[in-house]
Specification:
single chain, alpha/beta, TIM Barrel, 2 domains, three-stranded antiparallel beta sheet, 22 helices, binds flavin mononucleotide
Length: about 550
C-alpha cells in the first residue's frame, strides 16, 4: 500500500471505504427499488455485501478481514486462484520476502492446528548446493514428551528450566498491546519464555503471567533514571518480580547491530511511556551503545551486579557477532575475573527488526551459523562452555531449523518472526509504518482490534507445541532422546553434484581447552580467526590492542 494511502488511513480508515460505499449504495438502491420497483438485484447485492462486511469485522479467525472488511476477501480470492497473482497485488512493492511461502504456510498450519503433513514428497531440490538433511537411525527411539528443556543458571539462587524453543525479544511499541497479550498468554499456556525486548515490561506482559526474560537495552527502559542512565533501585523492583525468570543484557541485534533505535514521539503512547519510564509523546531513543560500562571487564561486573540485584536469577547477554576481537575480549575478561554470564543469545544478521536502514539489515553483522559457531567454539576452547548456555535466533521457524542450530552448538532457539506469523502476520512489511494489516505491529487501536487475543493465544501455544512435536519426531528418527544430543555428525550438507559432507567435516570445531593450549603456544591455533584476533583482544578495552 503506497505511503500516502497509509498516511491518509491514519486519519480516516479508508480501508472501510468500499464497505461504506456498499452501505450507501444499499440504501440508495433499496430506495429506488421501493419507490420504482427497480434495481432490486442491486439492493440485494449491496445488502449482502454490507452483511459480509459486518461478519468480517466481527469474526476472529482472519485478522486481515477484520481490518479490511469485504475487500480483504480479494486476498483470499487471489490466493485461491494463483499465489503469484496474489503476491503481485498484495505485496507488489516488496520484491523479496525474508520468509518463503513454504516457511510461512508451515507456521500457519501448525498455529491453526491444521495438518502439517505434506503429500507426495519434498518440494525441495535435494540435488541443490547447500541442501541439508539429518541422518536417521535404523533403531529409532521412543520419546514420551515434546517438552524438551534446558536448565539455565545451574548453581545460581534461581535457576530457570527453559523450553528449547522460546519467543525472541520484541518490544511493546514495536508490537501492539494485543500482540503482547497473545504472545504472553501463549507462553503461559505452553510453559515457555517470552522475551520483552528492550521496550521493557508493560502492563500487557503482566496480564497472563507468562514467563518473562527481561531485556535491558542501552535505553535502560524500565530501570532508568531521569537522565536515561541505569537505575539500580528501579531495576531491582522489576527484576525481583516472580514473573521475571531471566535478565538479558542486549548488546546488539542481528538486523541492526551497532545501530540504536528511535521510537518516534507520536508512537510513544501513555502505556509505552509508563513501561519504559520515559515522557509521553517525546522521541524515545535507544543509544547505539551502553552507558553503564565501557570495557569488557566493566560489562561482566555489570552482569554480576544485575544478577545480584535480581536475587540470583540467570543473567546473560544477547549479541550479533561483529569485530571478533571484541567477542574474544569479553572472553578474556571472563578468564580474568572469573565472572561468567549464565547464557549468551547469538542473533544472526539475518534476524528481524521493526525498522532498520537497508545497509544494516543487509550488510552488517555475522550470519547466525558463523556467529554461533564462533561463540560455541571459543567457549569450548576456553573450557567455559559448561557454565554458559547458548541460545540462537535468526530465521528459526521449523523443527529442522532448531535441530540444525543444536548441531552448531545451541542449547535452545528463539524465534521472533515465526511467532509473528503464528499471530497472523502476513509479511506485508509495514511494521515501520504503523499500518500493519493484521494488528501485530501497530499502535492504532482500530487496527490492532483485528488481533483477537484469545484466538491468537491458542495459535501461539499450538505453533510452539506442534513445532516441538515435529522436533520430537526428528529426535526419535535420529535414534536420540533429546535435541541437545544432535551434533554436527548428524547433519549432512550438499556441496556440489557429487559432494556431500557432514557438518563436522565442513565447519571448524574446537576441542575442549584447545584455545588455552594454543594461547600458551603448546598446540597450533585451531582456526585463523583465533590466531589473528586472540592476540588483539584485551579485557580492559573493546578496542584492539595496538
Ligand atoms: C518486530 C521486531 C522487534 C524486535 N525487537 C527487538 C528488541 O527489542 N530487542 C532485541 O534484542 N531484538 C529484537 N528483535 C530481534 C529478534 O528478537 C530476533 O533476535 C531476530 O529477529 C531473529 O529472529 P527471527 O529471525 O526469528 O525473527 C526484534 C525483531 C522484530 C521482528
Amino acid at each position: 500500500m503506497p505511503s500516502w494511502l497509509i498516511a491518509l488511513d491514519r486519519y480516516f480508515p479508508i480501508r472501510y471505504l468500499f464497505w461504506l460505499f456498499c452501505a450507501v449504495a444499499a440504501m440508495l438502491s433499496a430506495f429506488v427499488w421501493v419507490a420504482f420497483g427497480q434495481w432490486g438485484w442491486a439492493a440485494l447485492t449491496f445488502v449482502l455485501l454490507v452483511g459480509l462486511g459486518v461478519r468480517d469485522s466481527l469474526q476472529s479467525r482472519h485478522a486481515v478481514l477484520r481490518n479490511y472488511p469485504v475487500i480483504g476477501h480479494l486476498r483470499f480470492l487471489l490466493e485461491f486462484i494463483r499465489p503469484e497473482i496474489r503476491q503481485y497485488f498484495i505485496e507488489s512493492d516488496n520484491e523479496s520476502h525474508p520468509f518463503s511461502r513454504q516457511q510461512r504456510s508451515l507456521v500457519y498450519q501448525r498455529a491453526k492446528g491444521d495438518s502439517d503433513k505434506r503429500p507426495f514428497g519434498t518440494q525441495l531440490d535435494v540435488g541443490a548446493q547447500g541442501y541439508e538433511w539429518i541422518n536417521h537411525s535404523l533403531v529409532p527411539t521412543q520419546v514420551a514428551s515434546h517438552d524438551f528443556r534446558v536448565t539455565i543458571g545451574e548453581g545460581r539462587a534461581q535457576p530457570y528450566s527453559a523450553s528449547v524453543f522460546n519467543i525472541s525479544a520484541m518490544s511493546f511499541g514495536a508490537l501492539s498491546a494485543n500482540a503482547i497479550l497473545a504472545l504472553n498468554g501463549g507462553a503461559k499456556r505452553g510453559g515457555f519464555a517470552h522475551d520483552t525486548g528492550e521496550g521493557s515490561i508493560s502492563v500487557h506482559h503482566r496480564v497472563h503471567g507468562g514467563d518473562l526474560v527481561w531485556e535491558i537495552g542501552s535505553g535502560y527502559f524500565g530501570c532508568r533514571s531521569d537522565d536515561g542512565r541505569f537505575d539500580a533501585e528501579r531495576f531491582t523492583a522489576n527484576a525481583r518480580d516472580p514473573q521475571v525468570k531471566m535478565i538479558e543484557l542486549k548488546l546488539s541485534q542481528g538486523a541492526k547491530p551497532g545501530h540504536g533505535g528511535v521510537l518516534p514521539g507520536p508512537k510513544v503512547t501513555a502505556e509505552i511511556a509508563a513501561a519504559r519510564g520515559v515522557p509521553i509523546g517525546v522521541d524515545c531513543i535507544s543509544p547505539s551503545r551502553h552507558s553503564a560500562f565501557d570495557t569488557p571487564l566493566e560489562m561482566l561486573r555489570f552482569i554480576a551486579r544485575l544478577r545480584e540485584l535480581s536475587g540470583g536469577k540467570p543473567t546473560g547477554f544477547k549479541l550479533c557477532i561483529g569485530h571478533p576481537w571484541e567477542w574474544l575480549a569479553i572472553c578474556k575478561a571472563m578468564l580474568e575475573t572469573g565472572i561468567t554470564p549464565d547464557f549468551i543469545v547469538v542473533d544472526g544478521a539475518e534476524g528481524g527488526t521493526g525498522a532498520a536502514p537497508l545497509e544494516f539489515t543487509d550488510h552488517v553483522g555475522a550470519p547466525l551459523q558463523e556467529g554461533l559457531l564462533l561463540v560455541h567454539n571459543t567457549l569450548v576452547g576456553l573450557n567455559l562452555r559448561a557454565q554458559i548456555r547458548l541460545g540462537a535466533a535468526g530465521k528459526v521457524v521449523s523443527a529442522f531449523d532448531i535441530a540444525r542450530m543444536m548441531a552448531l552448538g545451541a542449547d535452545w532457539c528463539n524465534a521472533a518472526r515465526g511467532f509473528m506469523f503464528a499471530l497472523g502476520c502476513i509479511q506485508a512489511q509495514h511494521c515501520h509504518t504503523g499500518a500493519c494489516p493484521t494488528g501485530v505491529t501497530t499502535q492504532d487501536p482500530l487496527r490492532q482490534r483485528a488481533l483477537v487475543v484469545p484466538d491468537k493465544i491458542e495459535r501461539i501455544y499450538r505453533f510452539h507445541r506442534n513445532t516441538l512435536e515435529a522436533l520430537r519426531e526428528l529426535v526419535q528418527a535420529a535414534g536420540l532422546t533429546h535435541p541437545n544430543q544432535i551434533r554436527a555428525t548428524h547433519i549432512v550438507r550438499r556441496g556440489g553434484e557429487r559432494e556431500v559432507r557432514l557438518l563436522v567435516n565442513l565447519l571448524p570445531f574446537v576441542q575442549p581447552g584447545e584455545l588455552l593450549a594454543a594461547a600458551r603456544g603448546e598446540v597450533p591455533w585451531p582456526h585463523a580467526v583465533f590466531e589473528v584476533y586472540w592476540p588483539l583482544a584485551q579485557a580492559s578495552s573493546f578496542a584492539p590492542a595496538a
